[in-house]
């Protein structure tokens, strides 16, 4: 892990087009800004971990397809 000290207003370039800037510091909280192209997904780590956990839990659950067969039959009839 690379560890850098930055002051308010200073930035870190991750790669061309991706810049992380220290916006403000209050106590032990640091407010940062991330500038990146729209196609680069930026999210909080705790959100990503939460989504990954939800996905892992849902893999083991049986799929609820109650009534799906009837709905498909109705759709097929309406297309004729």
Automatic annotation (TrEMBL):
Protein family (similarity comment): Belongs to the CsrA/RsmA family.
Gene encoding the protein: csrA
Keyword Endoplasmic reticulum appears in the UniProt entry: no
Name of the featured protein: Translational regulator CsrA
Pfam family, one: CsrA
SUBUNIT field: Homodimer; the beta-strands of each monomer intercalate to form a hydrophobic core, while the alpha-helices form wings that extend away from the core.
Keywords (A to Z) from UniProt: Bacterial flagellum biogenesis, Cytoplasm, Repressor, RNA-binding, Translation regulation
InterPro entries xrefs: CsrA, CsrA_sf
Organism classification: Bacteria, Bacillati, Bacillota, Bacilli, Bacillales
PANTHER family from the UniProt entry: CARBON STORAGE REGULATOR
Localization per record: Cytoplasm
Main location as per UniProt: cytoplasm
Function of the protein: A translational regulator that binds mRNA to regulate translation initiation and/or mRNA stability. Usually binds in the 5'-UTR at or near the Shine-Dalgarno sequence preventing ribosome-binding, thus repressing translation. Its main target seems to be the major flagellin gene, while its function is anatagonized by FliW.
């Amino acid at each position: 892990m690379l560890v850098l000290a930055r002051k308010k207003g200073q930035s870190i370039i991750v790669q061309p087009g991706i810049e992380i800037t220290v916006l403000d510091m209050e106590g032990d909280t640091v407010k940062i800004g991330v500038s990146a192209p729209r196609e680069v997904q930026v999210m909080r780590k705790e959100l990503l971990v939460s989504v990954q956990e939800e996905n892992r839990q849902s893999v083991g659950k049986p799929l609820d397809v109650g009534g799906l067969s009837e709905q498909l039959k109705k759709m097929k009839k309406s297309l004729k």
